[in-house]
Amino acid sequence: MEADVLVVGAGILGLATAYHVLSRDPEANVLVVDRMGDVGQGATAKSAAGFRAGLFTSSTNRLLSDTSVDFYLHIQREEGYDLGMELVGYLILRTKEQFEEIADVAHALEKRGTLKIYRKAELKKMLEMNYEFDGDEEAEILGVKNVDYGLFGVKCGYIDADKLAYYYRDRIKEMGGNFQFNTKVERIIVEPEIKLGIPREPRAWQKVRFAGVETNKGTLKAEKLVIAAGGWTHLLLDPLGIDCISKPKKRQIFTFRPRTEAQKALLNTKGFNDEGILPFTFLPTGHYIRADRRDGTFWFGFSDEIRPFSPDEEPEENYYYDNIYPIMVKYFPQLEGARVDNMWAGLYMLNSVDHNPVVFRRSNMVVATGASGSGILKGDAIGRIAAALLYGETYADLYGGEKIPTNKLEVVGRSLETESFVF
Ligand SMILES: Cc1cc2nc3c(=O)[nH]c(=O)nc-3n(C[C@H](O)[C@H](O)[C@H](O)COP(=O)(O)OP(=O)(O)OC[C@H]3O[C@@H](n4cnc5c(N)ncnc54)[C@H](O)[C@@H]3O)c2cc1C
User: Fold this and answer.
1) Considering only CA atoms, which of 368, 365, 410 is closest in space to residue 15?
2) Cβ neighbours for 97, distance < 8 A, ≥ 6 positions apart
3) Which residue from 8, 44, 233 has its CB within 8 A of the most atoms of ligand 1, so it is best to mutate?
4) Where are the strands (E) in 173-246, listed by range?
5) Atom of ligand 1 nearest to the CA of 215
6) From atom 52 of ligand 1, which residue's Cα is the shortest distance away?
7) Residue 82 has what pLDDT?
8) Ligand 1 test: best mutation among 31, 35, 249, most atoms within 8 Å of CB?
9) Which value, to the nearest 10 degrees, does the dihedral of the CA atoms of residues 387, 364, 181, 409 take?
10) Atom of ligand 1 nearest to the CA of 184
């Protein structure tokens, strides 16, 4: 049977798109295919699942994150479906110079009530860490910088990415959508819009449409296609000569269960949130530390630039000891001796042009990708844009009523503010 809409990829972007397609067109026959055995098993499952509403320097990213987080909060609070959201806040620690670069945005966000700016003196009373490294040769070699400011994002915290994926999966099923798992898409089928029955169609001068996909389980035909294959999207588009200006980079998370009283005290840092836990904290070096309240662990990560674009997803324990531990211990000496208890790796689909997501349409196919390390927290808005674009609309309605042009995230003629808060 031919699907009306075939979605490749059951990660957050594919799921949100399928959900919004069905919300607007309940009669549509929607099929979501994924090579894994269930939804959200790609980057979605591997993420740190932090969310930050409006805590971006690009106004587009602010809009996408604001409205998506509001939608998730609505699900949790009004629909009563537990998404495991905890508003523990984001704490972005900055040097004086780093703060000055984004001071205008920070002050504007503070006026809106989205952000609280802490000066060093206030931070020192709340957070036990090293703030000054002047004259510390080792710190200089490691690129460890002073902490002068803390930007505290209020409507920020973590969500349970699995629960979010299951929410969309269950709603999609309730609305009559179908899933086909363990199905790997090998290629997208290209056909002429008008078949002439001549050899070697489509010829270069013929208009084309995308008629479906070839998979390891046979051909799947479709009226419309959505490609939301995360860090593998370019592998399906490159053979067609379609550029999604995004490439995959491995990102890793290492967890550690606090052993000493000082480590436990750091995990249970009071004063920032009602939960009495360390907020999701970003160091001036870009390293982050996340305290997971549910399982009582720290999560450490770092998004370095010089690292190959590759779909490799193997975690490397050495990466932690070489690149994370020495820096973390400089800032938080109480973490001395922190060994890796668990680790995993996944892919950021990085759009290095401006670090905003990438959503565009070619013929009857829409591509949703380039979430650049923040696809969970913008997923719902991206899904709304992709669904509206699939139906030929010029504006998408985001949650809460704001509208966004559906060509805003298009590759060609793109003109978006560059995002500085990429972690
Ligand atoms: C370590 C790490 C930390 C992160 N932290 C955060 C965070 O704190 N907050 C946040 O918002 N985001 C975070 N992210 C980013 C976030 O996880 C991604 O932006 C988001 O999950 C992207 O969703 P997606 O649907 O595009 O991709 P994915 O979730 O990867 O989904 C793509 C799906 O396509 C399927 N697929 C691919 N190719 C094929 C094929 N050929 N045939 C069939 N199926 C195919 C895959 O199996 C996969 O299920 C993090 C990512 C990583 C790796």
Assistant:
1) 368
2) none
3) 44
4) 178-180, 185-192, 208-215, 218-227
5) 42
6) 47
7) 97
8) 35
9) -50
10) 42
DSSP assigned state of 209 = E
Hey, whose CA ends up nearest to atom 22 of ligand 1? 375
Burial class (CB in 10 A: 0-12, 13-18, 19+), 278: buried
Phi/psi-derived region of residue 319, left when phi > 0, alpha when psi is between -120 and 50, beta in every other case: alpha
Rg (CA), the chain: 22
Q: In sequence order, what are the residues at sequence separation of 6 or more whose Cβ sits closer than 8 angstroms to the Cβ of residue 124?
A: 131
Q: Closest Cα to residue 177, out of 39, 44, 42?
A: 39
At residue 58, the pLDDT reads: 87
pLDDT score at 54 = 84
Cα dist. 411→164, 243, 421 in Å? 28, 8, 21
CA of 131 to the centre of ligand 1 (A): 35
pLDDT of residue 29: 98
Tell me which residue of 178, 265, 228, 176 sits closest to 9, measured CA to CA: 228
pLDDT at 419: 81
pLDDT the model gives residue 253: 98
Q: Which backbone phi and psi does 246 adopt, to 5 degrees?
A: -140, 140
Asked if residues 380 and 68 have their Cβ atoms less than 8 Å apart, the reply is yes
**Closest of 266, 268, 195, 233 to residue 365, by C-alpha:** 233
Domains and CATH numbers, the chain: 3-51+162-245+353-405 (3.50.50.60), 90-154+248-350 (3.30.9.10)
Best residue among 34, 250, 313, 355 to mutate for probing ligand 1, ranked by most atoms within 8 Å of CB: 34
Q: How far, in Å, CA of 306 to CA of 372, rounded? A: 15
How far away, in angstroms, is 198 Cα from ligand 1 center?
41
Which residues in the chain show pLDDT less than 50? Answer: none
Task: Ligand 1, residue 346: give the atom nearest the CA.
Answer: 53
